[in-house]
Amino acid sequence: MGKTWQPSEAKEFAKQLELGTPYYVIANLAVDRTPYEDPQMYSEYVFTGHLPFTNNPCTDGGYSAETLCQNFGPVYEDKPRNMRRLGSSGPQVTGPVDPNVVHPLDEAEIAGLEKSVGNADRRRHTDARAKARRGWSLFR
């Protein structure tokens, strides 16, 4: 089992890490906003160099080891099991639709689509009116 560094151990993490080795951080997702996503996913970071003045190890994205551990920790040496990587494709919720079969909509589905279109139109008109009010000029 690999080592784990807590956010309070950021300096030790910066001293103990090896360049070129992947380290992992787990992100907790808000499943109320993304109901089809997993509640946790991992990110992978590889430290490839050192920062100029402090000589702290850093990633290609510019994160120093201490910053990564303090802000996103705990940092794991082993890849998390049974977890998807952050940014990978999500699970397929429904199957593909056969293009040769006609799928009629029932009245409830049509009403729901009409309501969505009406809401989008109202938001677009409201936004346009608000933008027109904000764009006042002294010379109009």
Based on the model shown, name its key terms.
140 residues; alpha+beta; 5 strands
Number of helices: 3
Q: Give the percentage of residues in beta strands.
A: 15-25%
Roughly how many Å is the radius of gyration?
Answer: 25 Å
Class computed from helices, strands and strand pairing = alpha+beta
- The total strand number stands at 5
Please outline the major beta sheet. Answer: 5 strands, antiparallel
The arrangement of helices and strands along the chain is: EHEEEHEH
Helicity range = 25-40%
The outline comes out as elongated
What is the straight-line distance between the termini? 71 Å
Q: Spans with pLDDT under 50 lasting ≥5 residues?
A: none
Overall average residue pLDDT:
82
Please outline the helices and strands:
Layout: E1 4-5, H1 10-16, E2 22-28, E3 40-50, E4 57-59, H2 65-72, E5 75-76, H3 107-134
Antiparallel strand pairs: 1-5, 2-3, 2-5, 3-4
